[in-house]
Design goal:
Radius of gyration: 18 Å
Bound molecules: heme C
Structural class: mainly alpha
Helix content: 40-55%
Distance between the termini: 53 Å
Order of helices and strands: HHHEEHHHHE
Strand content: 5-15%
Strand order of the largest sheet: 2-1-3
Number of domains: 1
Shape: globular
Length: 160
C-alpha cells in the first residue's frame, strides 16, 4: 500500500506537464506539443531533451542540435524547425510536411504519415515557441571532417 501511494503521488506530481494535452483530431498548441513528443521530434531537434529524461526547455525546443550525424551521406545536423515554419503559412507548412525529404537520420516519411490536424497543431506549437533563433551548421559532404562534435553512424559490424 505504501508503495502504491508513493506511485500515485509520483503520478500526480508528473501530471501538470501532461494535463494540458488535447485529444487527437483537435487542432491546438497543446496537441502540437504532444505530437512533437510522440513523433520523437525532440529526440533529435531539442537540446537537452534526452539528457533530462524528456524535459522540454522552452528556450531550446525544436531549435536543432549542433551535433553532427556522420555516415555515408556525409554529416547532417538536426535542423532548427522554428526556421522551417518561420516564413510559411499554416497551409504551406502542411503542404511542406506532406512532401519534404531530408537526409538520414531524419525520418521524413514519418512526418508524411501524420494526420493533417496533427501537422496543423505542430505548426501552431512551433509558432508559439517564439524567437526562431539561429540555423544549425550546414551539412557536410562525405569525406569532409566535421568541426563540431558528431555521432558516427557506422554500418553494422557483421560477425565473420
Ligand atoms: C533521428 C533523429 C531525428 C528525428 C527523430 C527527427 N529528426 Fe528532423 N532532422 C534530423 C536531421 C539530422 C535533419 C537534417 C537532415 C538533412 O540535413 O538533410 C532533420 C531535418 C528535419 C527537417 C528539414 C529541415 C530543413 O531545413 O530542411 C524537418 C522539417 C524536420 N527534420 C522535422 C522533424 C519532425 C517534425 C520530427 C518529428 C516528427 C523530426 N524531424 C524528427 C534528425 C531527426
Amino acid at each position: 500500500m505504501r508503495f502504491r501511494l508513493g506511485a500515485l503521488t509520483a503520478f500526480m506530481v508528473a501530471l501538470p506537464a501532461t494535463a494540458a494535452f488535447a485529444g487527437s483530431g483537435e487542432v491546438s498548441v497543446a496537441r502540437g506539443m504532444q505530437v512533437s513528443i510522440i513523433g520523437g521530434c525532440n529526440d533529435c531537434h531539442t537540446a537537452g531533451y534526452n539528457e533530462s529524461g524528456g524535459k522540454i526547455d522552452p528556450a531550446a525546443a525544436l531549435k536543432g542540435i549542433p551535433v553532427g550525424w556522420n555516415g555515408p551521406w556525409g554529416t547532417t545536423y538536426a535542423a532548427n524547425i522554428r526556421l522551417v515554419a518561420k516564413d510559411k503559412t499554416e497551409d504551406e507548412f502542411v503542404q511542406y510536411a506532406k512532401t519534404f525529404t531530408a537526409r538520414p537520420p531524419m525520418p521524413f516519411y514519418n512526418v508524411h504519415a501524420m494526420d493533417e490536424s496533427d501537422i496543423r497543431s505542430l505548426y501552431q506549437y512551433i509558432k508559439s515557441l517564439g524567437d526562431p533563433g539561429d540555423p544549425m551548421p550546414a551539412a557536410l559532404p562525405p569525406g569532409t571532417p566535421p568541426t563540431t562534435p558528431y555521432v558516427v553512424m557506422a554500418p553494422p559490424q557483421m560477425p565473420k
